[in-house]
Design a protein that fits this description.
By secondary structure, this protein is of the alpha+beta class. The chain has 4 domains: 4-90, Uridine Diphospho-n-acetylenolpyruvylglucosamine Reductase, domain 2 (2-Layer Sandwich), CATH 3.30.43.10; 97-215, Uridine Diphospho-n-acetylenolpyruvylglucosamine Reductase, domain 3; 220-329, Alpha-Beta Plaits (2-Layer Sandwich), CATH 3.30.70; 336-418 and 427-437, Alpha-Beta Plaits, CATH 3.30.70.2740. 34% of the residues lie in helices and 21% in strands. The protein has helices at 4-11, 23-29, 50-63, 115-124, 141-147, 154-157, 192-196, 230-241, 254-263, 287-302, 315-326, 328-332, 349-363, 392-412, 437-450; strands at 19-20, 43-45, 67-70, 87-90, 97-101, 106-110, 127-128, 164-171, 176-179, 204-212, 214-215, 220-227, 246-253, 276-283, 308-311, 338-343, 368-374, 379-385. A hairpin with a 4-residue loop joins strand 8 (164-171) and strand 9. Helix 8 (230-241) packs antiparallel against helix 10 and helix 13 packs antiparallel against helix 14 (392-412). The longest helix has 21 residues, at 392-412. Its cofactor is FAD. Belongs to the FAD-binding oxidoreductase/transferase type 4 family. Pfam families: FAD-oxidase_C, FAD_binding_4. InterPro entries: FAD-bd_oxidored_4_C (IPR004113), FAD-bd_PCMH (IPR016166), FAD-bd_PCMH-like_sf (IPR036318), FAD-bd_PCMH_sub1 (IPR016167), FAD-bd_PCMH_sub2 (IPR016169), FAD-linked_Oxase-like_C (IPR016164), FAD-oxidored/transferase_4 (IPR051264), Oxid_FAD_bind_N (IPR006094). Keywords: FAD, Flavoprotein, Oxidoreductase.
Length: 464
């Protein structure tokens, strides 16, 4: 923990209310959405400028104090948890949007800008920021970049990485790097910007980003389709991808739908209950696009891939259909789910899901399984719900055994143990299923280059 002398010297670097040691602040800023590790930070500091971030990092380097960067705290891998007396560096106050350029379609964002804030800014300018997910109202741009967040529109627009035109990062020595500076073409050596994206604060603190925006898409429609099995969902994906311009292609299980309908006061999309559901959003610039979608729907019904379906007729209905998918995480949070965020190539998803589901059901029949995910980009979320009577420690231990088998299956399918949530503390023991020993060794060497004192989010991703 920090000594009174250290707290006194740290307090000189920021304004009066920016340094907090009270229990409520430490609890709030010292954790993310995971609840496996008990937060135990030494203090929380909220800088209001890039210069203050640099000063704090230099102070931490000199004092050998570990730093944990904190954004919207909506992460799901314990990447922003301060459990060992670290100093939490919360970036909430770096929340200005500036330097909008209509020609380049770029805008500069402080790390603390909330995702929805950027989306609303873009909309006001007649443009579009497409990276979107259920936590867009709380997640921050810096955290999105640090974890290379994906979300519901990856099938068309890609990950956060694809929208970062420039990046300012404070390294573990307090040096400020200005990376790429908004350029479209820049082959002058290594692009360190992409090294920082997805590094989870282990190489440096992201303080500012120049983000690309896109033209606003045409009117969109949403369909929810009931399917008998996962193989049918993949046939539906292929059919619709060839006929309409897909913005999103999501899936969820009947078990997930039942929970959402019961606990969120929502209505089933149609009377028929199916094993799985696909949610599609597609661009509808004219009546021809909707007619093509309906023809594709009828084709899928005739082929036996779809059992029933519905298409939105208004923005309100589209929003209601999206809630069936986006409210799942919030709904199941009351069961403290153990989450696995896995991926493989799109073509291998059905076999991976079947193998994993069989593994869990055969070995752990008392666990309730909830499936959902971004099936259009090969990413599925396995959620194991904690039985009410089971102690948390026992649940975590048993789920750890589940993960071992799950990740062995992921490795056999050439996939990833973390599609979009990051590694943090929770996935660190399993990194070897997705990265070779040589890769992990090089990652550790890179960390030592950017963070020679080892103060930047130590223990996350790597033990080194």
């Amino acid at each position: 923990m920090l000594s009174p002398k250290q707290l006194e010297s740290l307090a000189t670097l920021v304004d009066e209310k920016a340094l907090r040691t009270d229990q409520e602040s430490c609890l709030n800023y010292g954790r993310d959405w995971t609840r496996v590790h008990q937060p135990n930070p030494a203090a929380v500091v909220l800088p209001k400028s890039v210069e203050e971030v640099q000063a704090i990092v230099r102070w931490a380097c000199a004092e050998q104090v570990a730093l944990v960067p904190s954004g919207g705290r909506s992460g799901l891998s314990a990447g922003a948890v301060a459990a060992n007396g670290e100093l939490v560096l919360a970036l909430d106050r770096l929340n200005e949007i500036s330097d909008f350029d209509a020609t380049d379609r770029t805008v500069r964002c402080g790390a603390g800008v909330v995702t929805a804030q950027l989306q609303e800014f873009a909309q006001a300018e007649g443009l579009f920021y497409p990276v979107d997910f259920a936590s867009s109202g709380s997640s921050q741009i810096g955290g999105n970049i640090a974890t290379n967040a994906g979300g519901i529109k990856v099938i068309r627009y890609g990950m956060t990485r694809d929208w970062v035109a420039g990046l300012k990062v404070v390294t573990g020595t307090g040096e400020l790097l200005d990376l790429n500076r908004g350029l479209i073409k820049n082959n002058a050596g290594y692009d360190l910007r992409h090294l920082m994206i997805g590094s989870e604060g282990t190489l440096g603190i992201i303080v500012e980003a120049t983000m690309r925006l896109e033209a606003e898409p045409a009117e969109r429609a949403v369909m929810v389709l009931g399917t008998p099995d996962m193989a049918s969902i993949m046939e539906v994906l292929r059919a619709f991808r060839d006929r309409v311009r897909l913005e999103a292609f999501e899936f969820f299980s009947e078990e997930a739908l039942a929970k959402v309908v019961e606990h969120q006061d929502l209505t089933r999309p149609f009377a028929t209950a199916s094993h799985y559901y696909a949610l599609l959003e597609f661009e509808k610039p004219d009546d021809v696009a909707e007619a093509s979608a309906m023809e594709c729907f009828e084709h899928c019904v005739d082929a036996g891939w779809v059992e029933d379906g519905v298409i939105s007729q208004s923005l309100a209905q589209a929003s209601a259909l999206w809630r069936l998918r986006e409210d799942i995480s919030e709904t199941i949070s009351r069961w403290t789910p153990y989450k696995n965020d896995i991926s493989t190539t799109v073509s291998r998803v059905p076999s991976l899901l079947t193998e994993v589901e069989g593994l869990v059901s055969d070995n752990y029949p008392d666990f309730e399984i909830i499936w959902f995910g971004h099936i259009g980009d090969g990413n599925v979320h396995l959620n194991i719900l904690k039985p009410d009577a089971m102690p948390m420690e026992e649940f975590q231990t048993r789920c750890g055994s589940v993960s071992q088998g799950v990740f062995e299956s992921v490795a056999r399918h050439g996939g990833s143990i973390s599609a979009e949530h990051g590694v943090g503390l929770l996935k660190k023991p399993y990194l070897g299923y997705s990265r070779s020993d040589s890769e992990i060794n090089l990652m550790a060497q890179l960390k030592r280059v950017f963070d020679p004192a080892g103060i930047m989010n130590p223990g996350k991703i790597l033990d080194a």
